Amino acid sequence: MASHIILPKEEEAALGVAVEEDHDSPAAPGYQHQQGPPVAKALPFSATCVRISRDSYPNLRALRNASAMSLPDDDAAYAKLEEGDYGYLLDDVPHFTDYLSDLPTFPNPLQDHPAYSTVKQYFVNADDTVPEKVVVQKDSPRGVHFRRAGPRQRVYFESEDVKACIVTCGGLCPGLNTVIRELVCGLSHMYNVNDIFGIQNGYKGFYSSNYLPMTPKSVNDIHKRGGTVLGTSRGGHDTKKIVDNIQDRGINQVYIIGGDGTQKGAYEIYKEIRRRGLKVAVAGVPKTIDNDIAVIDKSFGFDSAVEEAQRAIDAAHVEASSAENGIGLVKLMGRYSGFIAMYATLASRDVDCCLIPESPFYLEGEGGLFEYIEKRLKENNHMVIVVAEGAGQDLIAKSIAAADQIDASGNKLLLDVGLWLTHKIKDYCKNKKMEMTIKYIDPTYMIRAIPSNASDNVYCTLLAHSAIHGAMAGYSFTVGMVNGRHAYIPFHRVTSTRNKVKITDRMWARLLSSTNQPSFLSQKDIDAAREADKLASKSPVPVNTKEHGENAKKPANGEK
């Protein structure tokens, strides 16, 4: 495996390596790189966006073996790490200059844009990075950082040469049309790009459909509608066919909107593009209504989904409170992660029990769900239960014989936990000779089909613009917000793991306090969850150990 280590300029010179200026952007007005010897005292670290200079860190080999995580050889070949003093590590994204040489650069058209003329500093400095973690102690290492998103002073495309395409894949999510609109309008209005095309019906549209020309006028009102105007589908990913069509049509910027499976596909497309030596930027915009994309703060559409889930919970509460021993049962989306169920429960305050995939539960016996239901009905005469679709799948499998099946995206098809739980509760109350009325509400497709709300619209705009700036600067990446700042994240970091609710975290404790439900956990479960959190908190980053591999000594930010 290859090791990608950036040497300080003085070390490069000592090794006979030619030293050139940053390709990204010269020092912005009012900012100068540090000169002279590095400071001896460790710098305090509290900002969410930190400016660093490679000249300040002469000991860049100090953290070569700082990580225990390993990647497959195929992925490790594309990992790019830049190391610095005080435990600093930049997990960088691929750039054209990693595999193409002597590429010309051009002034960013934004420098002449009237809308940006009042901005004090509208170009992101080459050394701006965003930390993955911001809660540290005074002696903590600075930790893993990602390249900050935003416009660069030099770009790798002239506006008239850009041919961009946009594709949406996977399930629906609030905000898809907003992202499409802002990609089209941003390319056109900020960078004067005229050739923008939509790929219809997911990945298969690259090779089975005509490309759809898109203009700011044609997408003007689409953000007011749910779904995606381009259509979507699961599966259909054929890397060779897709890249063949990208090459044949002269596309040089590909914007891919979709979940972790879609981002894996984007990564494969990038790797094939690189193998062929094509000057094509691949920008992924992560999309999942479940909010289970790793690294990023949250995915677009999540706020809208939680807001819409409130309507279903409100309806369940009205139904339950209007009947004697009434139960309102609401099933929400959440295949592997219960974020929608958790946040909707916390926002509602009408929910008596929330069940999610991360927290196992049981039905019968002391401390079980049935005992809690009986207790709650005696105390309050009604109750509301919220269950994520991925909860209790192991319990259902024990009572219903069903063959494992998967959808076109490779996801396991889930059994209907809401319907199963409804029948189980009915049977229990019948055996106990308890009068009870239960109403089951499944708003799944209503929630994901709505247009995005105001906050998600703004978030979608920022994601789209950040993706455009990165592609114009020659990077390939997944874009996302990390600790409140937009960053470019390597594909493998958002596809290797899932973001899940931590049941040992204070947020889950707040929920238990709000609902007064039992945790359903044994001490063994709690210990196992804490151990899993400890392993996850180490935030391993792949480090390649071979000294002179494909990426050795190439600057991580893509300079020549």
Give the overall shape, derived from the CA principal axes: elongated
State the distance separating the first and last CA atoms. 22 Å
Query: Based on DSSP secondary structure assignment, what is the total number of beta strands?
Result: 18
Mean pLDDT: 83
Number of domains: 2
| Share of β-strand residues | 15-25%
Rg over CA atoms: 26 Å
Helix content: 25-40%
CATH architecture of the largest domain: 3-Layer(aba) Sandwich
Largest sheet: 12 strands, mixed
Report low-confidence residues grouped into runs of 5 or more: 1-69, 542-560
CATH topology of the largest domain: Rossmann fold
Determine the structural class based on helices, strands and strand pairing: alpha/beta
Highest-level CATH class of the largest domain: Alpha Beta
Number of helices: 16
What's the quick description here?
Keywords: Allosteric enzyme, ATP-binding, Cytoplasm, Glycolysis, Kinase, Magnesium, Metal-binding, Nucleotide-binding, Transferase. Residues 545-560 have a biased composition (Basic and acidic residues). The protein has 560 residues and is α/β, with parallel strands linked by helices.
Key structural traits:
disordered N terminus, Rossmann fold, 16 helices, 18 strands, disordered C terminus, 12-stranded mixed sheet, 560 residues, alpha/beta
How would you describe this structure to a colleague?
With 560 residues, the protein is of the alpha/beta class. It has two domains: 71-297 and 451-494, 3-Layer(aba) Sandwich (Rossmann fold); 301-448 and 501-535, Rossmann fold. Helix content is 31%, strand content 15%. The protein has 16 helices and 18 strands. The chain has helices spanning 9-14, 73-76, 176-191, 205-208, 239-248, 260-276, 302-321, 339-348, 369-380, 393-399, 417-431, 444-448, 454-472, 491-495, 506-515, 523-537, and strands at residues 50-51, 80-84, 88-92, 106-107, 128-131, 143-148, 154-155, 163-168, 195-199, 212-213, 253-258, 281-286, 326-332, 353-355, 382-388, 437-441, 477-482, 485-489. The strands form three sheets. Strands 1, 2, 3, 5, 6, 8, 9, 10, 11, 12, 17 and 18 form a twelve-stranded mixed beta sheet that branches. A hairpin with a 2-residue loop joins β17 and β18. α5 (239-248) crosses α6 and α7 (302-321) packs across α8 (339-348). The longest helix has 20 residues, at 302-321. The chain is elongated, with a radius of gyration of 26 Å. The two termini are 22 Å apart. Residues 1-69 and 542-560 have low confidence and may be disordered.
